[in-house]
Amino acid sequence: MPKIDLHTHSTFSDGTSSPEEVVRMALKSGIKLLALADHDTTDGVSRAQQICAEHAVLFTPAVEISTCEHDHLHFTGYRLDLTNQEFQNFLNQNRENRKNRILKIIHQLAQAGVPITEEDVFSRAPNTVSRAHVADALKAKKIVSTRQEGFKKYLVPGCVGYVPSTGVTAVEAIKNIKKAGGIAVIAHPGMVREIWDFPAWKEAGLDGIEVFYPAHTFTLKQELLALARKYGLFCTGGSDYHGPHGGRITSPGMEIPQTHYNRLLSKLF
Ligand SMILES: [Zn+2]
Ligand SMILES: [Zn+2]
User: Fold this and answer.
1) Is residue 162 part of a domain?
2) What would the pLDDT profile of 52-105 be if each residue is shown by its tens digit?
3) Degrees (nearest 5) of the Cα angle 66, 69, 71?
4) 47: domain CATH number?
5) DSSP 8-state symbol, 196
6) Mean pLDDT in each 10-residue stretch from start to end of the chain (269 residues)?
7) Nearest ligand to the C-alpha atom of residue 7
8) How many domains is the chain partitioned into structurally?
9) How far, in Å, from the CA of 7 to the mean position of ligand 2?
10) Do both 149 and 185 map to the same domain?
11) Domain boundary among 102, 131, 155
12) Both 185 and 78 in a single domain?
């Protein structure tokens, strides 16, 4: 089965590897098709694209957009026109909203006696800031020992540092991807099973489902494949690689069946 990865992150958002390092890891894994899908920014894309071109790896410009409906309801956009100014303004606004959320988190943590400063967090995030940077700052101050512990103890619902997502709605995320000439995919649907709304997402223009994902069980994949058939959606695969220190899967790449790979290529190129 061909190995691809349409879902990776770099230091332009909450990954711990540069775009070049992400591509190098992808090359090592024998990937045929790659996308760098950083959160709310496409600024790292051209760097990854260039190395892929040098090594004859297929590449599509991508992004991952967060929504306000759930901390894990995300949509990835592919085949984007990165020069679309309206879309770049949209991403810019999302990054501003993220900053405001993080400022509130820092304020709440300070009020609870957790000594984290704006500098501690924002110095780690040259482009898109996220809760992962707060967790990393907590780790650097030895308040927690891993990024995951930082989330679990301080940043998820019920914790002192939790502030709800400031993202757009699902429909807005999908529509903005489409307006930039892109194709819209629901990322890791297994993480948001309780709020699935495929009829509404399809109506907004959803094109695909990320079926092949590390945390998806065999049963869940069968269910997603059936949904893809029902709604006429194509299937993608991605690892959500965040670099070797991201606390997740340690190398990029997901195997996908040849028929889905062929269909994907016809959609992307
Ligand atoms: Zn995501
Ligand atoms: Zn992701």
Assistant:
1) no
2) 999 999 999 999 999 999 999 999 999 999 999 999 999 999 999 999 999 999
3) 55
4) 3.20.20.140
5) -
6) 97 96 96 98 98 96 97 97 97 97 98 96 96 97 96 97 96 97 98 98 98 97 98 97 81 96 96
7) 2
8) 2
9) 6
10) no
11) 155
12) yes
Q: What CATH number does residue 109 fall under?
A: 1.10.150
Domain assignment present for residue 213? The answer is yes
Task: Quote the CA–CA distance of 118 and 46 in Å, as a whole number.
Answer: 29
Give residues whose Cβ lies within 5 Å of ion ligand 1. 74, 187
Residue 110, domain extent: 90-155
Residues 68 and 119 occupy one common structural domain: no
- pTM of full prediction above 0.90: yes
Question: How far apart (Å, rounded) are the C-alpha atoms in residues 140 and 28?
Answer: 30
Distance from Cα 125 to the centre of ligand 2, integer Å: 16
d(CA 137, CA 144): 9
194, exposed or middle or buried, with CB in 10 Å at 0-12, 13-18, 19+? Answer: exposed
DSSP state, residue 169: -
Residues 177 and 67 in one domain: yes
Query: Quick count: other Cβ atoms within 10 Å of Cβ 157?
Result: 8
Tell me the percentage of the chain whose pLDDT exceeds 90: 97
The CA 232 to ligand 2 mean position distance, Å, reads 24
Distance 64 CA to ligand 2 centre (A): 6
Is residue 213 within 8 A of residue 190, CB to CB? The reply is yes
138 part of a folded domain: yes
